[in-house]
């Protein structure tokens, strides 16, 4: 083409122009004062693990599922969905709110297959970039439309929660959650904090399988929390990253949400398929906000889209397609439910094994919290110094808050792990 | 009973002006409707196109049983990042060889711009960004939300339907020292008007002399002229002088990966240790936004770019898309000439890339939508990619009618 040739010949001439012409003076970089940022506490653990040459090394750091051979897993239902998708779909932009089909199926999981809220179109929902993206959309939305509000975050919580609301410029407060002595829930203090917060406060709740402690309120406790929320007119945002992964039953894992819905709350939910469908790197999730009526839901959804547009325009299509292919096909959905239960069961089995091993080693400490906690993580109660010893002496990698990712525990390493924990905790 | 929703007062947001066009188009039941709104490539048959080489890459990925879907690192797929930097800066770029470039995978062009802007708002001493007038509608929103203060510089001259070069030089000359300048690397969106290489050289000298910081938006590399190298020349010129710059890349159009959201942000620094520190700070921007980028699209790109045969196939398919667009420009120009439509329409063949800034006003656009079912943005921008030989006459008729009707 003539145009191409013209450009090419200009290119040839241009080469001789730039050499030595008007080159910028030897100034210092714009960035000379940029400090090196601290490593992310969670993701930095895996980096360190990968760099370790020891054959005994164990990674119980980041929360990605591993099978009993310590290998990452791609679910069969996902492989099948990918086979069906590959080669047959175009890659057009999704709408700003993401895949309608994926969002529909995702809402059913959270609100119930026959939810009246879905039927009445009262749920404003958009596809989001996994759980992180869903939380961030909500935080930005909260900042924009309730600028006077703060967010109450449990202690402890996933560390990125703090980053998300900080970057959205929403002030944070904390509420009591974990009880160190019992390695369980500090229910009394939690309820006090809920009572004492100003009316109409915003709370972040982990729907199930609390990260990092694995400590969840009982059903009865959830009911009490819900009642107290009603009395105070608080807003509940549920972060549900482990539906199905906690007990093995997605309906059961959504119980906290269903209680709040029954009690008439207008809630928000951040959902992720990273763990329960093993879609980690695909970044698939959903943010939903229950509204008074369809009109309000349309308005809220449109505003969520306005936040997404200058952030990434529209969400990635591939992961959403996998989700809607699986959940939209009864057989594939059944397969998925079976595989999720399989993952949850293996983790529950490893909890039992770890606890038994520690007890059989004659540990004088109580380890019942290992089986009482639920989900991917176990809050061991170990101190940072003990964790450092585990890493230095035994090449065992976990976050310094003593959080063990049970998904990284296998029949092959559970004895080694128990022994190491026993060694560093007995000599206190 | 729980009180009213805390969001009861939220009002419905206006439709996005660009994406809203497709929404309106989809609602129209006319068999003659034509979507010239959003810039997504269409074949002669008006169908979306998945490149052959992309399908091949997808098959390779799906057949590779060893592939897993684990989290990427915060900065994304390492291969993809290296290859993307080479693509925009040139394989032999001294900046790459010196390790002075940090590249992070982001969500297409939008995500790359947003992450870069957030970084600048936090770490750069000057919070003003100068953007061309006009520019892609999403640009000011991205920069405002990132915390930058947006100013414009003259760019498009409606009288010539070309570049207002004097205005551009004056406005950049008057910018505060150190201000950030947004530059469209090629195929300016929405006007299709690009500086010549001689003009780029002058722009470069001005920018460097005022210590302005260039931030390139490269969404059409290879799509504009059909040559990947030619379309990157503006960026490479700036890197060649040893100075610093940012570049946002998108694979949405040139690899047809739109919905996969694949892109990269590169920051060219003066020294390797600086680039390393900059990268660590980029991670702090990304982690609370979405933790890490989506794996699928980047894997496709990496598979193609690292295989010389697939890379070659890509360049051929890319050139074919660019050539079809050039052909549509030619046909539309000839159709208007044949109808004797009043006015000078040569800008249609002078402008480059996916879009033509027709010069039609919003009233004429509304008329064309109502009477001819032609959907385009109200600024008169049409996506040439949405045209075919079959539909050019219909568009030419509509333009002719819009221009000749008495108000």
UniProtKB/TrEMBL annotation, chain A:
Catalytic activity field: L-aspartate + 2-oxoglutarate = oxaloacetate + L-glutamate
Enzyme Commission number(s): 2.6.1.1
Top-level taxon: Eukaryota
Presence of the UniProt keyword Transferase in the record: yes
Group of enzyme by EC: transferase
PANTHER family attached to this UniProt entry: ASPARTATE AMINOTRANSFERASE, ASPARTATE AMINOTRANSFERASE, MITOCHONDRIAL
Protein name listed in UniProt: Aspartate aminotransferase
Organism name: Linum tenue
Higher taxonomy: Eukaryota, Viridiplantae, Streptophyta, Embryophyta, Tracheophyta
Automatic annotation (TrEMBL), chain B:
GO BP, sorted A to Z: amino acid metabolic process
Similarity field: Belongs to the class-I pyridoxal-phosphate-dependent aminotransferase family.
Top-level EC class as recorded in UniProt: transferase
Species whose genome carries this gene: Linum tenue
Aminotransferase class I/classII large domain sequence ranges: 32-399
Additional notes on this entry: In eukaryotes there are cytoplasmic, mitochondrial and chloroplastic isozymes.
Keyword terms, alphabetized: Aminotransferase, Pyridoxal phosphate, Transferase
UniProt KW Transferase keyword: yes
Quaternary data: Homodimer.
Function comment: Important for the metabolism of amino acids and Krebs-cycle related organic acids. In plants, it is involved in nitrogen metabolism and in aspects of carbon and energy metabolism.
Catalytic reaction(s) noted: L-aspartate + 2-oxoglutarate = oxaloacetate + L-glutamate
Alphabetized InterPro entries for the sequence: Aminotransferase_I/II_large (IPR004839), Asp_trans (IPR000796), NHTrfase_class1_PyrdxlP-BS (IPR004838), PyrdxlP-dep_Trfase (IPR015424), PyrdxlP-dep_Trfase_major (IPR015421), PyrdxlP-dep_Trfase_small (IPR015422)
Protein name, UniProt field: Aspartate aminotransferase
Enzyme Commission number(s): 2.6.1.1
Required cofactor names: pyridoxal 5'-phosphate
Entry's Gene Ontology cellular component terms: mitochondrion
